[in-house]
Specification:
Layout lengths: L2 H18 L13 H4 L2 E6 L5 H9 L16 E7 L7 E4 L2 E6 L2 H16 L10 E7 L5 E5 L15 H13 L4 E8 L8 H9 L6 E6 L11 H4 L10 E3 L5 H5 L4 H14 L12 H38 L10 H24 L6 H16 L3 H4 L2 H12 L9 H13 L2 H25 L7 H35 L3 H14 L2 H4 L3 H4 L10 H5 L6 H4 L11 H41 L2 H7 L4 H7 L4 H30 L1
Parallel strand pairs: 1-6, 1-7, 2-5, 7-8, 8-9
Antiparallel strand pairs: 2-6, 3-4, 3-5
Helix pairs in contact: 1-10, 1-26, 10-26, 11-16, 11-25, 12-16, 14-15, 15-17, 15-23, 16-17, 16-23, 17-23
Length: 651
């Protein structure tokens, strides 16, 4: 799947989830509207502006209701999905998920019937959208929202307020900063009187969100053209104007195929003396591709802010859910038994997540296998062991008396300084596993069906679990820091004793030709006295004590060898910590979470009286309703977060 398909498909799936969960803008202002945060292409035009014909040209199918007056009385979210060449075209409605429409005349009828189901047979309008997905090899990946046509007068059967009602509905879509406005105007009318341009100018005065579309170019009076508009001289927009030639009423009556109509449109622009020079940037096919590309770029730019809004809303909703109340039990014994049973059900699901029966526990291994090694690779050891820093640290360690044989203190300071950097990744590993465990607690609570009726108890269990996890985290942090400190407190001398022995086996190029300084050889790679190699002595002495007498101990090569030796030693320690840190984390956090997550909570429950237990199972009708609303919206945001995460990983 391409990035464009995945991003536009992402918004499509979130829009469908929004509609199913009752979020389609407006409504309850107590919640942030995810629907309003999503980038959309809103199709705006006056009645008889050719709006329906433009949409049908983009789709390549007759599928929209036609007639006089206000035909579009509910927003139509039109989601186009490009399929492989030769595949069969079909349509699906969100409210009829198991039915595929291959006859597009039935699609038109279903739009009409679904509109009537919501608004009745009157000419009323409704803000609840209809979701229609069309799968075809003849479309581009694109999502459009067809809005009721702007009108100036009410017709029979409509309230006088219909004009304002339609404008308010359309305005609620186009005034969103993430909305792309497709303003459709007929070319055979003065652009200054266009309802769509007038509204677009009010909500998007700079014109950077507005695409202008001129329809009915072929119906203009002879001797006139629309070049001033199309070339941006009459009314300039940041986005381009696109000319469209729709089917005539005669073509519609004759059921002229839309693919044939597209070909005629291309021929019109290619052969027109007025528009031939613009032919490559005119027509419904070009418009669809232009909108698809622009929508994808807007979605890509808005993903971070949408994610931030979702996470903030989730935090707010979860915080509110934690404070909602529950029903009263009959007696203290029954209440205690119920609470313990609910806790055991939660604990079972939590263990299943860790042990692999449910997804999530594998993320702990992901921290060890990916995050920890990646953090080690990013440590600034190259900077710490740079030639300048090695010279500086060794010189400072020597003080007023330069080292005689090997810079013992310099080596120790370099190693200890390097190992301090490992504390950050060690603590980050502890924190990452802690957050995985917290998330598994959250998921386990939400997946424990029996707990859903008792939000107060959910909050108590979550709080107790998080308190326990905090204790485990603190113990784990102390342990991994001790591991790093152990490596600093006692260095492996044997590592440095082996250095000259390895050089003896490989041979010393410095002894074959020139001085070690001239050849850049390592003074630590010389044979030396076997007796000296066997003694404990200086940990660094073995790496440099056998150097030839004529080596300059303060040459650049000397300090490079020191840095290289320290780097090798730190690499060995790094390999050790990659193995020991996960062991410590699992022992202190994962194992403890499996064995004793709620032990402290159980001890506290035994001390509570019946009234206190009853409060944990208390429930209020008003709060229950509010909780249902929160849970509904929380479900939407979590689904949206999962959708965004899946696209992020795919990319």
């Amino acid at each position: 799947m391409s990035t464009m398909e995945s991003l536009i498909g992402l918004v499509n799936r979130i829009q469908r989830a929004c509609t199913m969960l009752g979020d389609y803008g407006g409504g309850d202002n107590a919640f942030s509207s995810l629907w309003e945060a999503l980038p959309t292409v809103a199709v705006v035009g006056g009645q008889s502006s050719g709006k329906s014909s433009v949409l049908e040209s983009i789709v390549g199918r007759d599928f929209l209701p036609r007639g006089s007056g206000i035909v579009t009385r509910r927003p139509l979210v039109l989601q186009l999905h490009k399929t492989g060449d030769g595949s069969k075209e079909y349509a699906e409605f969100l409210h009829l998920p198991r039915r595929k429409f291959t006859d597009f005349s039935l699609v038109r009828q279903e739009i009409q019937d679904e509109t009537d189901r919501m608004t009745g047979k009157t000419k009323q309008i409704s803000p609840v959208p209809i979701h229609l997905s069309i799968y075809s090899p003849n479309v581009v990946n694109l999502t459009l929202i067809d809005l009721p046509g702007l009108t100036k007068v009410a017709i029979d059967g409509q309230p006088e307020s219909i004009v304002q009602d339609i404008e308010m509905m359309v305005r609620s879509y186009v005034e969103k900063p993430n909305s792309i406005i497709l303003a459709i105007s007929p070319a055979n009318q003065d652009i200054a009187t266009s309802d769509a341009i007038k509204l677009a100018r009010e909500v998007d005065p700079t014109g950077e969100r507005t695409f202008g579309v001129l329809t009915k170019l072929d119906l203009m009076d002879k001797g006139t053209d629309a070049l001033d508009v199309l070339e941006g001289r009459s009314y300039r927009l940041q986005q381009p104007w696109v000319g469209i030639v729709n089917r005539s009423q005669a073509d519609i009556n004759k059921n002229i195929d839309m693919i044939v109509a597209r070909r005629k449109e291309r021929e019109y622009f290619a052969t027109s003396p007025d528009y031939a020079h613009l032919a490559s940037k005119m027509g419904s096919e070009y418009l669809a591709k232009l909108l698809s590309k622009h929508l994808e770029s807007v979605i890509r730019a808005q993903i971070p802010s949408i994610t931030s809004m979702i996470n903030k809303s989730i935090d707010e909703l979860e915080s509110e859910m934690d404070h909602l109340g529950r029903p009263i039990g009959v007696d203290a014994g029954a209440q205690l038994y119920t609470i313990l049973e609910l806790c055991r059900a939660f604990d079972k699901i939590f263990k299943e997540h860790l042990d692999g029966g449910r997804p999530g526990g594998d993320r702990v291994y992901g921290v060890f296998d990916n995050q920890l090694p990646a953090a080690f690779r990013k440590l600034p050891l190259d900077r710490h062991l740079s030639l300048h820093n090695v010279r500086k640290i060794v010189s400072e360690a020597d003080g007023y008396q330069p080292h005689l044989i090997a810079p013992e203190q310099g080596y120790r300071r370099l190693i200890e300084g390097s190992l301090k950097y490992f504390k950050g990744p060690a603590e980050a590993t502890v924190d990452a596993v802690h957050f995985v465990l917290k998330e598994l607690v959250r998921k386990s609570i939400s997946e424990t069906q029996e707990l859903r009726r008792f939000p107060t108890l959910q909050a108590e269990i979550a709080a107790a679990s998080n308190e326990a996890l905090e204790r485990f985290r603190e113990e784990s942090r102390k342990t991994v820091l001790r591991l790093v400190d152990m490596e600093s407190s006692y260095l492996t001398v044997e590592f440095f004793r082996k250095l000259p022995q390895e050089v003896e086996r490989l041979g010393n190029p410095g002894e074959r030709s020139g001085t070690p300084g001239e050849r850049g050889g390592n003074p630590g790679e010389r044979g030396g006295n076997p007796g000296e190699r066997g003694r404990g002595g200086n940990l660094a002495e073995r790496s440099v004590s056998t150097a030839a007498p004529n080596v300059d101990r303060y040459s650049e090569g000397h300090f490079r060898r020191i840095g290289s030796n320290v780097s090798s030693y730190v690499g060995m320690v790094s390999d050790t910590l990659k193995n020991t840190i996960p062991k410590a984390v699992v022992y202190c956090q994962v194992r403890e979470a499996k064995m004793s997550l709620l032990n402290f909570f159980y001890a506290q429950l035994g001390k509570k009286e019946g009234k206190q237990l009853g409060l944990m199972l208390d429930e209020d009708p008003a709060l229950m309703e509010r909780r249902q609303q929160c849970a509904k919206r929380l479900e939407l945001y979590k689904a949206a977060r999962d959708e965004i995460d899946s696209v992020s990983w795919a990319r």
